[in-house]
Design goal:
One of its GO terms (molecular function) is ATP binding. This protein has 302 residues and is of the alpha/beta class. 31% of the residues lie in helices and 28% in strands.
């Protein structure tokens, strides 16, 4: 049996003269949390809608477990759209049961799953409330329940953390990690890059309808500029200004953050720091996802 991976293979989509996707390609492995990031209009939502089957592509293919995604496969996808898609005047419990039945669950199993997920996501007290009467945060929780209520084999979530309070973010994060631990491929987009960096096994950065780069943060950082954190409490401001190949990013309270150009010897920096007095810390800092994103996304989205 092939691995239950979700594959996006050279998907292209055009709207008249506007090219939304240009051979978009990436893979979300079974049991993996994959962060899908890019500027507004970069093509993330279009990609997700094609994976779900809401939109058709002009070319390319979506596969799951090595086979083209079919209508039957799509019954097993849990999808959370960015614009949300709940019936505003329908009661929470009835709505979740209804959606579960649309995905093939029996009435009894659907009601049971609805109860379990509303409890798990902290909205059990709202089961008999109409969706439009809920706070935006609780609507978000119900929308996630709608994506999970049929026990999906694939999860595709568009900005699932948007508008959530910190407690709800923690709950949703834990749920996504649990689903991945069950072997479900999970892909989600988000502009909250610190959250993506913390949660995801791998990340894909999109620009102008194309996957520019993907991998772990560590892998994506390999070719980025080296940064140093130097704590030299007696060092005067400007001590590193004259060093060849060195850019001073920040100096505060004896702590200096530096960026080294290609081929610059960090030992020369250490020698200069020691010349000012004791050095309490001298360490390379890891490039953050925010820094990587800024470096990669150099063009505005379409």
């Amino acid at each position: 049996m092939p691995d239950q991976n979700l594959e996006i293979d050279k998907i292209s989509k055009r709207y008249g003269d506007v090219v939304a996707l240009r051979e978009m390609s990436f893979e979300v492995r079974a049991g993996e949390l994959f962060g899908f990031v890019g500027s507004n209009g970069a093509g993330k939502t279009t990609t997700m809608r094609i994976a779900l089957g809401v939109l058709s592509s002009d070319s390319g293919e979506v596969r799951f477990g090595g086979e083209p995604v079919t209508l039957e496969t799509r019954r097993h996808i849990g999808y959370m759209p960015e614009e949300r898609g709940l019936y505003p005047k329908m009661k929470v419990g009835e709505q979740l049961s209804y959606l579960a039945r649309l995905h093939g669950l029996s009435p009894r199993a659907a009601a049971k799953s609805s109860d379990e997920w509303t409890e798990r996501l902290g909205v059990e007290a709202k089961r008999n409330d109409e969706v439009e009467k809920l706070s935006l945060g609780n609507q978000q929780r119900v929308q996630l329940a709608a994506a999970l209520v049929h026990d999906p084999r694939i999860l595709v979530l568009d900005e699932p953390f948007s508008g959530l309070d910190p407690v709800a973010v923690d709950v949703m994060s834990q749920v996504l990690k649990e689903k991945a631990a069950e072997g479900v491929p999970v892909v989600f987009s988000s502009h909250q890059l610190d959250l993506v960096e913390r949660l995801c096994d791998r990340i894909g950065i999109v620009r102008s309808g194309q996957m520019v780069t993907s991998g772990t943060v560590a892998e994506l950082s390999v070719d980025s500029a080296v940064r140093l954190l130097v704590h030299a409490p007696d060092a005067p401001r400007g001590w590193a200004d004259g060093l060849a190949g060195v850019t001073v990013l920040r100096h505060e309270n004896g702590r200096t953050e530096l960026e080294l150009g290609a081929g610059t010897d960090d030992q020369a920096v250490l020698k200069a720091a020691l010349a000012t007095g004791p050095v309490h810390e001298f360490a390379r800092s890891r490039t953050s996802l925010t820094d990587l994103f800024r470096n990669v996304v150099t063009e505005p989205g379409e």
